[in-house]
Write the structure tokens for this entry.
Amino acid sequence: MRSSSAEGNNEFMVDGVPISEVLSLHRTPFYLYSASRIRANLERLQTNLPGFDIFYSFKANPNLRICKILRELGAGADVSSRGELAAALRVGFDVGDIAFVGPGKSDDEIQQAITHGIFAIVVESTDELRLVDRLARRIGRNVRVLLRINTLEEPISPEMMVGGPSKFGFDEETLIDDVRMINLKNVQIEGIHVYSASQVLDADLIAKHIDYVADLALRVADGLGFDLKCVDFGGGFGVPYGDGEPLDLNVIREAAFRARDLLKQRACRLIFELGRYIVAEAGIFVTRVLWVKQSRGENFVITDGGMNHFSRPVVMRVSHPIGILNKLKEPADVACNVTGPICTPIDVSGRNIRLPRPEPGDIIGIFNAGAYGYTMSMLNFMSLGLPAEIMIDGGKIEVVRKAREASSMFDDQPL
Ligand SMILES: Cc1ncc(COP(=O)(O)O)c(C=O)c1O
């Protein structure tokens, strides 16, 4: 959702709804999502990757309405905490379509996963494998697990999770020897899982990863002597935050088909688990300009929503596209620093970006805020209340998470 305006219109619209209509009902700051964009993103993946299940990674945005939309379209759920597991169950995901991955699962989380009988627990170490087996025996269930592997792949993105020393997964080179030593009673190893990196924008590198994982799955299954029934390729499909090109799914599709062919004899469930690709571009963080001030030759646009409510630009040091949503047709010829109201100099959402001449009352949109937005932010900082999450679906404006007034932020604390 970079910029969408009716012909000749100066104001931003989401799926035919002008931003002024949303603002007449809701106070800034808020997150604004396009349901049609979320659906289109998932459907593009499903169309391009037939034979693969797409599991939605809740960590990108666990808003229940978003998860429900994705479930209705046939996505599975990739969860990494008991909260995300509870959300997936509440939204109605079939337990057979839920996988639990994460390097720091608690006993309680593993027990819940076993008790609910989810599709798979993705195990990350020999100690975890032993624990899952022990807990499954105690509960009296059999459990399907996938082995998460810290491969020897070359870096494919700045946000790498494999390739070096890592808290994620079994080291590829010692996996077979380590796992072979373990006598499992209630655990069936049925596959592997490799999530190597996030925000990968080079389709050739993702293709290389897919080839690597398909080959590795066969080697591991044969080395450990288990029946290969599932391969989770991870994903990490990126979205451009600046002017970059969107990911070329054709290249990824070709690799996915190669993997599918290679694994054909094994009748495997093939999975990609993706968050950002599905939701990032479907969300905007919307704020209002409070002050415009000049200081020593620079313009500061101070808005009512900062790093507390949308931390990603600051924490991950990413420049999100930013625009003035009520001045779409005006020339962006003023260099500005867009900040929030937070009392720290790092509270800058956009540095030295060009905007139409900003004025108090203007509406700022920070684009590509649908993934790792609300959920990744430091929402309590400076006690400014919590922003709403609003969705446009079929022309209707719906609150999918209520705002919380600043005045109620201390209601849960005794004096
Ligand atoms: C194991 C795992 N799966 C899936 C994801 C989702 O990644 P993305 O939002 O980049 O698709 C992550 C993100 O950190 C992850 O760690």
Summary: Residues 316 and 372 are 10 Å apart (CA to CA).
